[in-house]
Amino acid sequence: MFKSEIKSEIGEDISILIQLDNHPWNYLCECGDASRLSVKEVQNANAVFISHTHIDHFVNFDAVIRHQIGIQRRVVICGPTGIAKQVQAKILSYTWNLISAGAIIYEIREMQTDNKIVVYEIEPPIWELIEIKTENSNILFKEKNFEVTGILLDHKTPTLAYKFSEKDTLKFDIKSSGFNGGKWVKELKDAYNNQSEDTIIQIEGMDYKAKKLFHLLHLQKGDSVGVIMDHAANTDNHAKIKTHFADCEKVMIECFYKDEDKENAIANFHSYASMSGKIMKETNVTEPIPVHFSRKYNTEDIEELVAEFNAALK
Q: For residue 6, what are the β-bridge partners?
């Protein structure tokens, strides 16, 4: 199950940390001015997901570099077209004469279309940007038990929305079985996954056909969490959101403006409170969360904005 936590204060530029149960690493979404993000959390980040490089989403990337130099492992950075050169430009703005090869390797995964990812590598001390390969996929990141997919939205510049999807898990009901656990449980799961109904499973000296035991298994649906940052509240964006995030468990979606400032939202290619809520309702998101509000709003304004978002969910 995913745990997501907003690491920026309500009036700061957005930053979100995502973690998965029983998983050693964490995942950083957006590099806003995150005052509640610790050095250890940055160092334990296995990947960084950037929607786009407007300053309020990328300003804190310098701190990410600062805390990760010297961890001596590979870190993935994902973003839209141009992210590779922008990461390189950030790095090259500093002097690195005391940093040796192997201090870190950044693998930059640049989504150029909804089905094309160009992969680069960059490492000290030269920080040369090297193109490694191109993938025809929307899967930006994959681990054993989850993957992250992306779609490009329009914000008068491409902006990347992310969906973290945990794999379904095959669970065994030991209490109902009447048996003691053992290696046979794995054998039974393997037989189920391979559709091998006639596999013989030996339990406590007795032989059973696997299909006779399949009723002890059930598939637990994997968790999912989405991050949708700046996007114009238009038909094309909404169609892509409703397709990609359909039935997602939790989605954090930008609500930059109150409804009374809808014209500002349209002019600046942003969404606004009631529209973000409406799209989350139409997408059947279980737990929609409004985030990323204009800095012009005070606490009372934001409370009104959230109320408008929640009203649209009913």
A: 16
Q: Taking the model in full, what pTM does it have?
A: 0.90
Render pLDDT for 260-299 as a digit per residue (tens, 0 to 9): 999 999 999 999 999 999 999 999 999 999 999 999 999 9
Element (H, E) at 155: none
Q: CB atoms < 10 A from the CB of 214, how many? A: 13
Torsion of CA 50, 54, 59, 60, to 10 degrees: -20
List, in order, residues 6 or more apart from 95 with CB less than 8 Å away: none
- Nearest-angstrom CA–CA distance, 71 and 40: 11
CA 110 to chain centre: 15
Backbone angles phi, psi at 306, to 5 degrees: -65, -40
Location of each CATH 3.60.15.10 domain in the chain? 1-165
127-162 as b/e: b if 16+ CB within 10 A: eebeeeeeeeebebbebeebbbbbbbbebeebbbbb
Instruction: Please tell me the distance from the alpha carbon of residue 57 to that of residue 301, in angstroms, as a whole number.
Output: 22
SS3 224: strand
**pLDDT tens digit sequence for 191-210:** 888 889 999 989 888 898 88
- Write the DSSP symbol of residue 54: S
The 3-state DSSP class for residue 120 equals strand
Number of other residues whose CB lies within 10 A of the CB of residue 265 = 22
Determine whether domain 1-165 maps to CATH 3.90.550.10. Answer: no
